[in-house]
Design goal:
Blueprint (H helix, E strand, L loop, with lengths): L11 H12 L6 H14 L5 H18 L8 H18 L2 H9 L4
Helix pairs in contact: 1-3, 2-4, 3-4, 4-5
């Protein structure tokens, strides 16, 4: 089921998740996928904090679950996401979570 807001529109998070799944499909060339993932990771930082947090956590988890065998291909996107989540946790005063996300032990 797709999450919608009061007007029946898909939430921005759901739209971003759909884009992510499409980009990671086998139909997209790996170099294009890598480039788009880095762009998404960087561009998402301009979203509202809570939306960014939700999407960045989803993206990290999705990358980890779906593409374990080729994870090094996504290192740049992973770095951007973890860096953004680190900043998010620091701004929230969650220093332990900030350290975990930066070290790669969480996400």
């Amino acid at each position: 089921m797709i999450a919608t807001d009061a007007t029946g529109q898909e939430s921005i998070t759901v739209q971003l998740q759909l884009i992510l799944r499409r980009v990671l499909s086998e139909e997209v060339h790996p170099q294009v996928t890598k480039t788009v993932l880095v762009y998404l990771a960087k561009a998402a930082r301009r979203l509202e904090e809570e939306i960014y947090f939700e999407f960045a956590c989803y993206m990290l988890t999705y990358l980890k679950q779906q593409h374990q065998s080729s994870s090094s291909q996504y290192d740049d996107a992973d770095f951007e996401l973890r860096d953004g989540l680190f900043d998010y946790y620091i701004n929230c005063g969650e220093y332990s979570d900030a350290a975990k996300i930066l070290s790669g032990r969480s996400g």
